[in-house]
Amino acid sequence: MRRSAVPVFLAALLSLAAAPAADTAREPCAHRNPLRSVWFGDLHVHTAFSQDAATGGTRATPRDAYRFAKGEPLGAPPWRGDQPLRRFQLDRPLDFAAVTDHAELLGEVHICRTPGLPGHDSWVCRISRNWPRLAFFVMNARHSLGERKRFGLCGEDGAGCLEAARTPWREIRDAAEAAYDRTAACTFTSFVGYEWTASENTRNLHRNVIFRNERVPELPTSVYEAPRVEGLWRALRRECLDRGDGCDALVIPHNSNLSDGLMFEPSDSEGRPLTAESAAERARSELLVEVMQHKGDSECTPEDSADELCAFEKLSIANFMQNYLPGFWARPPPPRSYVRRALKDGLLLEERLGVNPFRLGMIASTDTHLGTPGLVREDAHPGHGGAGTPPSAVPDGLPDNVEYGPGGLAAIWAEENSRDSLFDALQRREVYGTSGPRLRVRFFGGWRYAEDLCDSDTLVERGYAHGVPMGGQLPPPPAAGAAPRFAVHALRDPGTAERPGTPLQRIQIVKGWVEGGETREAVYDVAGRSDDAAGVDLATCTPYGPGADALCSVWRDPDFDPGQRAFYYVRVLENPVCRWSQYVCNAHGVDCARDVGLLPPSLAPCCAPSHRPVIQERAWTSPIWYSPESGS
Amino acid sequence: VRGWWRRPLLHFFVLGGALLLLDRQLDAAGPALLSMGDASARSAPLSDEELLYRDARARGLERSDALVQRRLIRDMRFVSDAPDARDEDLLAQALALGLDESDLVVRRRLVQRVALDEAAAARRQEPSEAELRDYLERHAERFAQPARVRLSQVFLSRQRRGASLASDAEALGSDLAGAGPDAGAACGDPLPLPRTVSGSRRELAAMFGEDFASAAFDLPGRSWQGPVASAYGLHWVWIHQRLPARPAALASVRSALREGVLEERADAALRERLAWLRSRR
User: Fold this and answer.
1) DSSP code of residue A216
2) What is the pLDDT of residues A116-136, one digit of tens each?
3) Is B24 on the interface with A (CB under 8 A)?
4) Which among B37, B65, B255 has CB closest to A177?
5) DSSP 3-state assignment of B88?
């Protein structure tokens, strides 16, 4: 039988198409550590391509943001002509970053900023250029209220905005490519990404999408194409994961604290209770959560826990709308807005469905809207930059809502600083978040760790050899009556010559478990001191008291029950230091005994009873899970 | 006259007046943001912009640019007494009336179009190997691979030894004097950082602190040196190997070079065009 050559030719073409693109090639890194090194970065960064950043006066492009992450200075609003009146620079470059501009407004922003494009003169764009504060509210309120139709400026079917989005999306991809260090030095890794910005009646459901490499969808999936998160997951599967060319993506929710309990509901987006199938889809699609950033901490709340250290960088509002309503309207976020509750609910759902939909590793990032990834210093916080108000002058007083802050960093344990190595680590959840400092935290769980592991130089080797690192699942117990042991080590941030890192106060292990059909939690101090011997002089911001360079512990769970599913994560606390707002209040000579009631609005929060002058910076690791099934 | 405030005519005038004020406000305020992609036009003197605008008109771009066309047709449909006329006729009318010359948006679009056309033409051809090599040579420092040092270190913990740290370090130094690189393996305090590590200055600073990283690059090799201070205590250090900074291989920075050449080429093309236009005046 004679065979046609056409199918062979087509197959050859297809195989060529599926082969990795030539530009994915890179030199092996000169520094490769099989026991893994920690890399610090920021996976939540907005630039002028985001409407709420552009209306705030931000002009930094994605290329500028990557240059900033690598250590170059960057101008920030306000501007006098082409000259920025503020300039910022990292004292230590980052190892990696992802620019994550809002997918929804890439097109609209480009149209509003490019004279001549159809829609440039629409009422929305004119408002955007002239009354940015109003535009910020109008454009974001439409998203937040669940409006799924693009603005009129996008044309009949939104095609105008999709077309316009191609140019910024191409630029975002080119900027990431230009920033990625493909040499053996492996000094910097960039990731292509975007933010999917969905809300239900201003209840935040935002997710960042981070891609493994330069093989990405033709356009980002916005809330217009995928109003529900399941649609986002499906779009990513269709346009990326199932392509078979190496495209790979992570979906990372953030600001569950502003979701009014919606982010981690035990139901799908239509309100139907999770099934084994839908829980599995969620577990597959979302492996990580951003636990802390500019707009507060989402770990846990004192309203739902006896853990007093949950009272950390809490917002007093439950959703975005409450920002714009009178104070009496505000109410704190409900318990289900927090990650610890989700981790516990996940155990309960696993018991019922056989699948844990909330098996989430933890990172932190900034959510900067100034294009300044990693700018997390408390003593130099320029504000969030996304409030929609371009400052007309350098802020004289607090540059931002006093409840917000500089945000945190993502820490990744990976063999080398390359896209594949970092992305693999994110997928196995061998990551942790910090509220800013670069402290190093190792966390292993197993059954056979020697009690004197902290006195040995082989903690890391044995940690891997006899157990699992953060983000993993405990192997089956070796014998009846065995209890898991956890090896945890924290090293303080070395800081810089000018600004040494803060000493450590203590290490805690947070355990959540299911008992009698109900979730429980306990917090154990496992190393360091829990007294308040260390503190900070609020007038000078000089820290005092004892602290540690390193803390280490091998901790055995005293209450372990092999029939109870559980998770364990580590929280490492530094000694207290001045919070960013206290630095600003001090710089303006505020004396609350003298000035209370006399301060201008920009400084009045300094003396409000709710002001938090102190921050206890910290790290949160991804949990290690235990399931009775793994032991059967 | 009770209920006068309910009269539709009043509402009409109040709302109309408000809209008029709003519109004037918008026009008076002028654009607060600058467009992206026209950085060169933004920072160049006005005469550059004028040159590019005249160039665009000389090339008839106001008749061929789709966005300019759409804007002129839309404007003409608004002012024309025959708004249902065909697009072609409306465009001809707009050009005859000179709407394109008085419209700031059309003007900026035409300037941007010339700049974008130059950039696009410059980027159309892939950079040659010679261009990539030339760019690498001119920016060798930016792409240089940093110097690295491979070292072994023995750690003495400040936290563990307190006041005796310095004397303990001296004693350890005596023990290590004259010994080989392996002698340190059994000494010192535990630290979950590699005993033997290869790193650039930045990588060493991230692990041990800046003081240690600086010192490591100045120490002589093939003997135990110290004590060297880190963020955590004191160290004795054996330098095994020092690799100087070296230029990057072209293959490993190809995509960054490509981006650099294309960016440079687009800038140069625009500058050349402007110089040529200026020389013709």
Assistant:
1) -
2) 655 666 666 676 566 655 555
3) no
4) B255
5) helix
pLDDT of the residue at A144: 53
Helix axes B129-138, B254-279, angle to 10 degrees: 90
pLDDT digits (tens, 9 = 90+) for A278-312: 999 999 999 999 999 999 999 999 999 999 999 99
Please report, for chain B, how many H helices and E strands are present, in that order: 15, 4
**Mean pLDDT of the region A391-401:** 87
Query: Counting every residue, how long is chain B?
Result: 281
A614 CB contacts (<8 Å, ≥6 apart)?
A: A535, A536, A538, A576, A577, A578, A579, A582
Which residue matches tokens 């239900």?
A200
Give the pTM. Answer: 0.83
Whose CA is closest to A114, among A53, A160, A152, A64?
Answer: A160
Task: Establish if B157 touches chain A: CB-CB under 8 angstroms.
Answer: yes
Bridge pairing between strands A96-99 and A37-45: parallel
Tokens encoding A119: 């829609």
Interface probe, candidates B33, B62, B159, chain A, greatest A C-beta count within 10 A: B33
Beta bridge partners of A522: A511
Contacts of A237 (CB under 8 A, 6+ apart): none
Decide if A150 touches B, using CB distance below 8 A.
Answer: no
Take residue B171 and report the two structure tokens written for it.
């004693």
Cβ proximity of A617 and A434 under 8 Å: yes
Token readout for A101 is: 């501009």
Q: Are strands A189-196 and A96-99 parallel, antiparallel or unpaired?
A: parallel
Report the residue of chain A nearest B186, measured CA to CA: A457
Q: Which of A539, A584, A565 is nearest to A626 (CA)?
A: A565
Which residue shows structure tokens 């609005």?
A601
AA identity, residue A571: R
Q: What is the 3-state secondary structure (H, E, C) of A277-309?
A: HHHHHHHHHCCEEEEEECCEECCCCHHHCCCHH
Evaluate whether A387 touches A136 at the Cβ level (below 8 Å). Answer: yes
Token pair of B144, please? 């240089």
Tokens of A139: 């454009």
